[in-house]
Amino acid sequence: MSLLTSRKIVMTTGALCMIGPGCIGLAGSPGMAIALFCVGGFAHQMLSGALLTLSADLFDRRVVATATGMAGSAAWIGGLSFSLVIGALADTIGYDPLFVCLALFDIAGAAILWTLLRKKPTAIPLAA
Hints:
Structural class: mainly alpha
Largest sheet: none
Strand content: under 5%
Low-confidence stretches: none
Radius of gyration: 17 Å
Mean pLDDT: 86
Number of helices: 5
Helix content: over 70%
Order of helices and strands: HHHHH
Shape: globular
């Protein structure tokens, strides 16, 4: 199996594990809700680790830091925006639909990853 395929499988496994926290609203006990939340924490770290190493696999070594920094900036903006939206929505619809959306976003992200990274990536040439 290629390195890129193994990264995509790890990210897909993490995304599928995020179904657990998406079911927190169905938990019959606080213990089950905590267990599902823990599965989500594990899955999130699995996704984060694979995503951070993916940039080193896709980009030339001279631009890996720039690519990782740009991805981190985009993640920070997304996290900030999502936090503001959650704060506004949690009062009106509750947290259950928001946990379901988190699971769906990760699964959609894995599908996008498989769609965009079909071929073996080539290093981005730098201007001389």
